[in-house]
Design brief:
- By secondary structure, this protein is mainly alpha-helical.
- The protein has helices at 19-28, 54-64; strands spanning 3-4, 33-34.
- Strand 1, helix 1 (19-28) and strand 2 (33-34) form a beta-alpha-beta unit.
Length: 65
């Protein structure tokens, strides 16, 4: 079984590509369990999504699921 749960979206400001591209690549690589783990928003770090992006993050990940 192949598992990859440490994947970030572009919302955390240090990843590239779309959520769908990540999932399609995981499917191609035969990854059985795949998940995103963006950094939760905080006001002191630029490598995190903003608080106002949390709803978009959840919506987009669930849509691709």
């Amino acid at each position: 079984m192949y598992i990859d749960l440490h994947n970030h979206t572009a919302l955390c400001n240090h990843a590239t590509g779309t959520i769908e591209e990540y999932v399609q690549t995981a499917i191609t690589q035969k990854i059985d369990i795949f998940g995103f783990s963006d950094h939760a928003p905080m006001n002191f770090d630029t490598y995190r999504m903003r608080f106002d992006e949390m709803e978009t993050y959840e919506k987009e990940v669930l849509h691709v699921k």
